[in-house]
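seq as requested:
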Amino acid sequence: TPSLLEVDSTNQNLNNRYRPFARNDDYGTCGWHGPKFTLCEWMRVFVRGSGLAIILSTVLMMLTMSICLLRDENRLARFWSRWLPWFEYILVHYVVGFSIRVVNENEGKQNKHVLPIIPQASVLVCNHVSYWDIPILYEVFQPSFVAAASVQDIPLFGRMASILGAIFVAHPNRTNEQGKNSTATFLISKLKLLNKKRNERNDDNDYITKPILIFPEGTTSNGSYLLPFRTGAFAAGVPVQPIHLEFPFTRFNPSWESIGVRTHLLRFLAQPSHRATVTILKPLVPKDDDIVEFANQARTAIARAGNLQLTDMGYRDKRNYHQALGKQGYS
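struct tokens:
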């Protein structure tokens, strides 16, 4: 049986090898270490957890009723389903103590976020840090997201996603009769259509002209690194607007990369407050058909804005790290 010193040494070696996915806060590997919960922290968890449960259940009930009573093509349903989640996220962020600051490089402004911002491009690409990325960015931009085609078949949630303007795509490995990747082809056509509709500024298609948010990394890191970008968001040849999302922290890092959901949520709710900074960078326009170069251009812009380290590690390395931690007793 290995000694405690040997286990600590092994964990340190793993963390050094997989730095982009290793915890870098006071609670150590998988959030299992660090100071124990105090009575005050347990009270925060209880109060905030109860508040979140009330908010989420109430909003879900209201959204369910609106979807059942209103048809997909009804503008009132689109309006209700667009603004209700936005208001819900504001309440959620207030309950958990999130303070969101928006930095717009295009206007040279730094301010606290109030109302949704209309970006200059129809496609937003952002670094991926946590499951909190989506509610924060929805509050700031109200974007649409890419969802698996199978979501359409889920009762209620499929219709809800459709009203919210989600772009449904098939499995990435599915191909058409010509041997081309049908998912990539479909996504490219959707992004081109979105860009066209947005340029037309057609009020009747307001829900379609919402920007679409894509996380090109395909998975999360600890917020200090930027993983390689997949090129799907750039293959359509339409302008993209890079976004950098950062969670400045003191003790607990809100990033979600190698920590269990339950542990993460408990640690997160126990903290006094949280901060998020959304930096809106200048839109990028493709100069030629080199989508790899276009993706690298956006990646470099985000890395420079957040002072992030570029790494070649990706999702497969993250899985290897999780498996190695599992052998050490972490789960």
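Confidence is low (pLDDT under 50) at residues 1-7, 171-181, 202-208.
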